[in-house]
Design goal:
Blueprint lengths: L1 E5 L2 H12 L7 E6 L13 E7 L9 H35 L4 H10 L9 H13 L7 E7 L2 E7 L3 H5 L4 H18 L2 E6 L2 H12 L1 H10 L2 E2 L6 H13 L4 E6 L5 E6 L5
Parallel strand pairs: 5-6
Antiparallel strand pairs: 1-3, 2-3, 4-5, 7-9, 8-9
Helix pairs in contact: 1-2, 2-6, 7-9
Amino acid sequence: MQRFEASTLQEACKQAATSYGCMISELEYNIIQYPKKGLFGLFAKPAIIEVIHSPKPLQEATKNQEEKLQEREITKSITKSSNRLQVKEKEVLDSFFKKESKREEKRRRKEQTKEYESISAIELENKIKNLFAKSCFDIDTIEVDIENNTAYIFIDGEDAALLIGKEGYRYNALSYIIFNWINAKYGLYLKLEIAQFLASQQDMIKNLLTNVVDHVKKTGWGKTKPLNGILVQIALEYLRDTFPNKYIAIKTNRDKEKYIIINEFNKR
């Protein structure tokens, strides 16, 4: 048996196929470890596979043709498991932004009787400043205000863009972490703004959904185009505020892309 390690499962399989001079379909292997990107670039893990069967080498004359087929074989064998992991991670982050379901509302009412520690805005602000002081990010502005049981947190600085990340997924992760901390300990909800990122995304969504909103006003129903990352949550909140008496929910199409439908409550 031989192990192969790479940043992705696809690369690990390529290495194994190249080493044995074969197609991916001829390999028998176990996935020892799925790759993980980590948080803020930390705690990343490579993909590791262990080949448990050594196939016969291919003839040199057919190698070029087989290499093209390998790409297709790798994609088919890996995409399912990779997409499944990504969907699970996104669902965890997305759940933070969703409006309360009936079950969540019951749980929230039950937790209203729970005793939380009290904290002022300046105390919470100092705690967050201490947290970032121990990080590698250059952040020079952290402001906190608490109103209506919600902590409004504004963060800015030279490395603010690094806290947002591609398509806002790092922003999602940071929001999720801070929310779980302040909600569990102080019973607070969260609105996080990083260098006007949230405001700019909200303005963009309003412009993007102009035609959808007009269509819903005329016909009573509609749906958005597929949206990525935090745009799904921002669009969901905007549409629910615009149409408070309609059924509005996130759906997933066959390509694992997320979109939002707007309908009457009795036409789900």
